[in-house]
Amino acid sequence: MKVSAKMKVKSLVSVIVPIYKVEQYLDECVESIVNQTYKNLEIILVDDGSPDGCPQMCDEWLRKDGRIKVIHKKNGGLSSARNAGLDVATGEFVCFVDSDDFICLEALQKLHDRFGDDESVGIVSGMIYRYQEGKTSDYNSEWFLKAEKVILGGNFLQETLTQKTSFTVWNKLYRRTLLAGVFFREGRNNEDSLFMYDLGKKICNMNVCMVEIPHYVYYYFLLSLYYMPLIKSITDSLFSSFIPSILSTIAFLFRSCKYTGFSLLLWYL
């Protein structure tokens, strides 16, 4: 793979970390970012009005590392915090890391290097570990890759909607210009999926692609099994509010004449 002179300069990567009531996880998360093998980072810690010790922890990290920026804001939820980070991000590339998770040591290096000098690559996505009680497993076995996979912009929305590719936002590196005009919907559930759907609508007619690489980049922290019944009950209640967004996305695909909306609807039924 060729690497352009521009890439050799080491483009700035903005890492956005929304933070709320994660005292016991925050240091491990931030440490995994500041210790990345890829060093040219802008680390944006967004304190979303956290009522615990997180605001002070953010300020301590600010004093430790000059690459860190801290935003203290009134609580507005995960989408609001991510949007606040996007508003101030200046990097050529952007990624998101949830503050109760952490990333692999070479995550940003591997994601960044795959862009090379190919301007048609707009997103690079890596694989995800599920991390629970000190043990790791695949986050989703259907997303395991043995070789690189390229998803064209025209296919991105369908691949995301049918979950053939990861619809999570935090295992990916994006060109910041690609995200112009795309924000997380505030006050809505399933914010990751909605963001990816909105991004898919934007790029469906663009000469751009997402490349999935066969490398693990992200540790998704799964709560103890003690909490799983509660999580399932919450998830079940949220899904009903998500249905209208699914149907509107299917309708968009149908109107675009790129795919058969009816076949996608059948997939969800």
Describe the fold and architecture.
With 269 residues, the protein is of the alpha/beta class. 39% of the residues lie in helices and 23% in strands. It has 9 helices and 10 strands. Strands 1, 2, 3, 4, 5, 6, 7, 8, 9 and 10 form a 10-stranded mixed β-sheet that branches. α6 runs antiparallel to α7 and α8 (228-256) runs antiparallel to α9.
Task: Summarize, please.
This protein has 269 residues and is of the alpha/beta class. The chain has nine helices and ten strands.
Key descriptive features of the protein:
alpha/beta; 269 residues; ten-stranded mixed β-sheet
Number of E strands: 10
Please summarize the sheet with the most strands: 10 strands, mixed
**First-to-last CA distance:** 42 Å
> What spatial form do the alpha-carbon principal axes imply?
globular
Strand percentage = 15-25%
Derived structural class: alpha/beta
Mean pLDDT: 84
What is the share of helical residues?
A: 25-40%
Low-confidence stretches: 224-240, 260-269
| CA gyration radius, whole angstroms | 18 Å
How large is the count of helical segments?
Answer: 9
| Oligomerization status of the protein chains | single chain
Set down the secondary structure blueprint.
Layout: H1 5-8, E1 13-19, H2 23-34, E2 41-47, H3 54-64, E3 68-72, H4 78-88, E4 93-96, E5 102-103, H5 107-115, E6 121-132, E7 135-138, E8 149-152, H6 153-161, E9 172-175, H7 191-203, E10 209-221, H8 228-256, H9 261-268
Parallel strand pairs: 1-2, 1-4, 2-3, 6-10
Antiparallel strand pairs: 4-9, 5-10, 6-7, 6-9, 8-10
Helix pairs in contact: 6-7, 8-9
